[in-house]
Structure formats: structure tokens, C-alpha cells
Write a structure and sequence with these properties.
Blueprint lengths: L1 H17 L1
Length: 19
């Protein structure tokens, strides 16, 4: 599940961008 890891990384980056 490489896609899942990529999504998690993107989501984490998005959260940081929102903060």
C-alpha cells in the first residue's frame, strides 16, 4: 500500500500548511 503512505504524507503536509 504505497498509495496509502503517500496520502498520509500529503495529509500531514496539508495539516502543517493549514496551521
Amino acid at each position: 500500500m504505497k498509495v496509502n503512505k503517500a496520502i498520509m504524507r500529503i495529509q500531514k503536509k496539508t495539516v502543517r500548511d493549514l496551521v
